[in-house]
Amino acid sequence: MASTTMFLRNRLLPALVTALVVAVYLVANHVEHQHSSRRFVSGLVSRQPSSVKTSVKGEAKVRANLSASDTRNVALTFGHDDDVFHFSPIITRSLSKRALDPKYDCLVEKGRRYYEDGILPAFNGHSAFATPTFDESSFQANGWSRIDEDNEVVPQAWKPALAMVPEGRPASGDESDRDEEVTLVYMDQNEPFTNAEGQETPPSNAYYWANYLPETFAILISTTYSPSYQLQQAGVPADQIPSRTPPLHRLSDVLWAVWESFVYAPGNFRYYAVDGITNAIARPLMEDIFNDRRGTTVVPWENRLTFGLDSKEGKALLASPNGLAVAWILIHRAEELGRREPRVTIFNPDGTNRCMIWDLIPQGGEGVFGDPLHD
After folding, report:
1. What single DSSP character describes residue 115?
2. Where are the alpha helices (DSSP H) in 48-191?
3. Partner residues linked to 341 by β-bridges
């Protein structure tokens, strides 16, 4: 009996205590992990609210669907917002040794889906999305008015890039100040229209303003506010926004319809530029990339960064609010454009004017703004 008591006291009891301590630790750690995950998700949602105001100077307002679901089940589907598909962005793992902050891994995966499930099938003639039939004649029926204004000054952010572009009018003297036809087009959704239910519907007061450079095959975004964003800001209930949104409402479709009115061969379109980027998704993403690659957020044109869609940065920038219109133009207009190799160049000359330029390189062509960086 004494030996049994000694065994219980010296061997079994310590083992039971140790097992109990380990069990308590594992349970506590699991609970803390759950709380940490919730804090991460909550933090991500607070950084990327469901209605995100984009660039003060340029680019559309978009709605990010922040539901937590398995990313393997993601599919490209249209929402009522401009140039956006619904996607769960909750991915916490790093994708490479040079991974961005985990909260942006979602954009990398989203961009990959755009490219592999949307753009590449379209290039191969197997797009799952019907090409929109909107053109200039669709403006009035959808409540859009158009005003063209000659813009004698090439926007500052475009000048260093323009100096490198071989297309367009031959340069004379300083290429950055060469004579370039620039038209600022004001597209305003400020007229009533008939919605899909046949009802007379008041305007959303959306507007898409952009500079068109037909000789250089370029569009430079100025200021854009989508119909859904404007309706939301006006207090329209979410369930009423679809019926209050005109069929022609996406930035990519409006841009293309205007572009077609300028040129005989719209498939020559090549450059898409945005400056003054301040939206809550692209701004911190670009700053992370600048810091990761250059060690600073002040990145003049001479130190610009160029990425293809084989890099995580290129994919993330494609999925950002300032790349979405490019993605849908490539998907919807593949027949006119042909196969392209998209590259994106970013720079930030004074630390506050974040700029993004997309070069949609034709098959067999060469990039204009430099060789792409890789992971």
Report:
1. I
2. 105-113, 120-123, 159-162
3. 361
